[in-house]
Design a protein that fits this description.
Low-confidence stretches: 16-21
Helix content: 40-55%
Structural class: mainly alpha
């Protein structure tokens, strides 16, 4: 009886069987990182639709540019990034759920929050 150890490197693969790849490290594209960087300057009010007073003032003095992004996936990223820039790890579960439902992974969420929180800490140390 022959025995093949398929786990050893250099051994032939089993036909018709795909070996599950190891989890690739989470990453964002350059466009997605730029959305995260721009979200740092967005106020929390950019996440809400403008109220009657804001609409009235906008008609008198000119409208503010709308920071909302046309791509729903990028808008979900922007929304979570704005919340994370302002609140750190204390983000509502509904915002995280929206981020995940937009097509991002839990690993990308961890990468996003980790990088934003470390940038916040670094900036606080520089201002002291």
């Amino acid at each position: 009886m022959a025995y093949l150890a398929f786990a050893e490197p250099g051994m032939p693969a089993i036909p018709g069987y795909a070996v599950p790849a190891a989890d690739a490290p989470a990453s964002f594209s350059a466009l997605e990182w730029s959305v995260v960087a721009l979200a740092e300057r967005d106020p929390l009010s950019s996440l809400r639709s403008p109220g009657r007073m804001a609409v009235a003032l906008g008609s008198l003095f000119g409208d503010r540019p709308n920071p909302k992004l046309a791509d729903p996936k990028l808008e979900a990223l922007r929304r979570l990034a704005v919340l994370t820039w302002h609140h750190g790890f204390q983000v509502a579960q509904s915002a995280v759920r929206g981020f995940l439902e937009a097509g991002f992974s839990a690993q990308q969420y961890e990468l996003l929050t980790g990088s934003i929180v470390s940038a916040r800490v670094k900036r606080r140390r520089q201002t002291r």
